[in-house]
Write a structure and sequence with these properties.
Chain A has 311 residues and is of the alpha/beta class. Chain A has 10 helices and 12 strands. The radius of gyration of chain A is 19 Å and the shape is globular. Chain B has 337 residues and is α/β, with parallel strands linked by helices. In chain B, helix 1 packs parallel to helix 2, helix 1 packs parallel to helix 10 and helix 10 packs antiparallel against helix 11. Classes of the chains: A alpha/beta (311), B alpha/beta (337).
């Protein structure tokens, strides 16, 4: 691939399944990954990105799962935790960064440091939490070995078009396209707070909320979703109707963020839309009944993220 | 009696009178921003033009204080030059350092002005020594401001594991979210700290009186509703009351302020280099009073750390400044989490 200006306009984005952001039991996770329509996906991201206390999957379990999925022909990427607080978090991040077998998505600058130039030729994915807002930072990450970057969720098509005017050679772009938006991280666990539990003794209550816990305003408007230390949008971000524009901009991957039910149908619908088998209207007909909550897409249009602009 | 390396006191200046107040009352450093979206307190009527900046810097330097310019938002694609001009201005004005969050901008500053000190902004979200050290290795960052997410033990670990000077927040408004990792404001209003240097901007706030209650909205979204006997606060969106699972409460955080004054001996003993006071949006009188109290506390603590205890009049003085909000140790105290 050469620089962004010479991207073939017809290039087809591949589908990437983002890391599971919720705490699902080991059994539920393994079942989820075993029953995916693997051939519809180009990439799958694995690992615990949100909370170091979630331990249903041990590091070896993730690696075993990664190997199983890689055998189906998928590109497997191991994602690091976004907020590193404890020494244990730090060691887990270092272990993933130096796994030597799979591509790694760096979700904090500490992980970038562990990945950059450690082994000549090793590349990495600059995750959505690295705050890449301009070409100079993107160029720096490219020099450090990033081969793909995931656009921050609050950026839209205009910012992406500007970033692609000087996209570094060989740099792939991934855009968060479907799911509850990961909006914020905190040291505080809001799920534990809801149950009046200290974080250190949270009793893993987020296991009871496989898609997060809805937060509404005092007049009942769905606003946010609490997922442990992460705050998400209540609405499901959905760029299904923006696929022609995403294609035109030369986006390489569309990230679909796992939800606990109907995920395979979401993947099939997006695959159909990319393939040309589903029209925009048919895509909406397929997704409307299976979204957790009504959609939003404001960020893509440079508006407040909560808004929904495409009918 | 052992004395400790002196903690430096870093104070906010939203305008020239605040800068002078901070210097007069004993700040070692004052930090300020320019009048645009290159800084994270991009509020109307706040910040410095170049004439004010020049006068402020001279005032500080004449009295032995140092100055640092906050250029701590993320340059937006296609507008990088505006942030480069802010760096040029910083070098031209003769500030002692700049506070930056964006690696692309740090590279510009380090190459163009190698003598200009670089401080890593809290907006860079660096919570561990690996993250801090990448900025040291690549751009020569000398000091890093830690996000308000680490417990006191975790702060100590970071100080131990890096030779970059560590600055921590001591007092002021409290971000519950990791700084630089929060898009809640743009989700609701289209404007965020990372993009335009604002959170829950005043232009999106609407107050409504209905049946004796006062409702406050941010871009139409109800952040809270107050009965006549309740104290109505500014609708920072993470500090409103919401409904989760049938309960209405401060689901994210109560309106509260950080005050870490009682931790001073520990912070000094573990080798923290500086304590930062939040509040560039505050009045000169506020800045004067906070600076005066913290100056006295730091001096007393460093002279005799073993016998230090925060004086009641300091605590009550600081509590008065928080307008009746709760006082918290925030994440320094693990239980807060």
């Amino acid at each position: 691939m050469s620089s962004g200006n010479h991207q073939p306009k017809t290039k087809q984005p591949g589908l990437a399944l983002g890391p599971v952001l919720y705490y699902w039991s080991r059994e539920m996770l393994l079942g989820f990954y075993a029953h995916l329509p693997h051939s519809r996906l180009a990439t799958v991201y694995l690992g615990e990105v949100v909370c170091g206390r979630r331990h249903g999957m041990r590091p070896e379990d993730w690696l075993g799962l990664a190997r199983d999925l890689a055998r189906t022909g998928l590109e497997v990427v191991l994602s690091t935790q976004a907020l590193i607080e404890t020494d244990l978090d730090l060691r887990a991040m270092q272990r993933i960064a130096e796994n030597g077998e799979f591509l790694v998505e760096a979700n904090d600058m500490g992980a970038v440091r562990r990945l950059a130039g450690r082994v000549p030729g090793v590349s990495f994915v600059a995750g959505p939490h690295l705050n890449v807002y301009n070409n100079d930072t993107l160029a720096w990450l490219a020099e450090l070995g990033a081969s793909r970057w995931v656009m921050p969720v609050e950026l839209g098509s205009e910012a992406l078009a500007r970033l692609h005017q000087r996209r570094p050679a060989g740099m792939e772009t991934e855009v968060f396209a479907y799911g509850r938006l990961p909006l914020a991280f905190s040291a505080r666990c809001f799920t534990a707070r809801h149950y009046n539990l200290p974080k250190d003794d949270c009793q893993y209550r987020c296991l009871d909320h496989p898609d997060g816990q809805l937060l509404a305003t005092r007049e009942g408007q769905a606003f946010l979703a609490l997922n442990g230390i992460q705050t998400q949008s209540a609405q499901v971000y959905d760029l299904g109707n923006a696929i022609p524009r995403l294609r035109e901009l030369g986006v390489d991957r569309l990230r679909l963020s796992p939800q606990s039910a109907h995920m395979n149908e979401v993947i099939e619908a997006y695959h159909g839309a990319l393939d040309g088998g589903l029209s925009e209207g048919e895509l909406e007909t397929a997704l409307a009944p299976i979204r957790l909550t009504p959609p939003c897409d404001g960020y893509w249009h440079g508006k407040p993220g909560i808004e929904h602009l495409t009918a | 009696m052992t004395t400790l390396r002196k903690l430096e006191l870093v104070c906010p200046a939203g305008a020239l009178p605040s800068l002078k107040a901070a210097v007069d009352h004993g700040a070692d450093w004052v930090y300020f921003g320019l009048r645009d979206d290159t800084n994270a307190r991009n509020f109307a009527g706040l910040n410095f033009d170049s004439r004010m900046a020049r006068e402020g810097i001279r005032y500080a330097h004449d009295r032995g204080a140092r100055t640092v310019l906050a250029i701590n938002t993320f340059p937006q694609a296609g507008a990088f030059e505006r942030w480069e001009r802010a760096i040029d201005a910083a070098a031209d004005l003769g500030v002692d350092a700049v506070i930056l969050a964006d690696p692309g901008l740090m590279r510009y500053a380090a190459r163009r002005y190698p003598a200009l000190g670089l401080h890593l902004s809290v907006q860079a979200s660096a919570t561990n020594h690996e993250a801090i050290n990448i900025y040291r290795d690549h751009f020569g960052v000398r000091r890093a401001v830690l996000p308000r997410v680490l417990s006191i033990q975790q702060v100590e670990q970071v100080v131990r594991d890096t030779d970059v000077e560590i600055e921590v927040f001591g007092f002021g408004s409290l971000c519950v979210m990791v700084e630089g990792r929060c898009a809640l404001s743009s989700f609701a209003t289209g404007m965020s700290p990372n993009t335009v240097g604002v959170c829950s901007p005043a232009s999106a706030v609407r107050w409504e009186q209905t049946n004796g209650d006062m409702a406050v909205r941010l871009n139409g979204i109800l952040i809270d509703r107050y009965a006549p006997n309740e104290n109505a606060g500014y609708p920072t969106l993470c500090k409103g009351r919401f409904d989760v699972g049938g309960e209405t409460y401060y689901a994210i955080e109560e309106p509260s302020s950080l005050n870490a004054i009682e931790l001073l001996p520990q912070l000094a003993a573990m080798g923290v280099a500086a304590v930062k006071i939040e509040g560039r949006q505050r009045s000169p009188a506020y800045v004067a009073e906070v600076t005066r109290i913290w100056r006295a506390a730091i001096d007393e603590c460093c002279a005799n750390p073993a016998r230090f205890s925060a004086r009641p009049q300091w605590k009550s003085g600081l509590t008065r400044l928080t307008e009746g909000q709760q006082i918290t140790l925030g994440a320094y105290n693990r239980k807060w989490k």
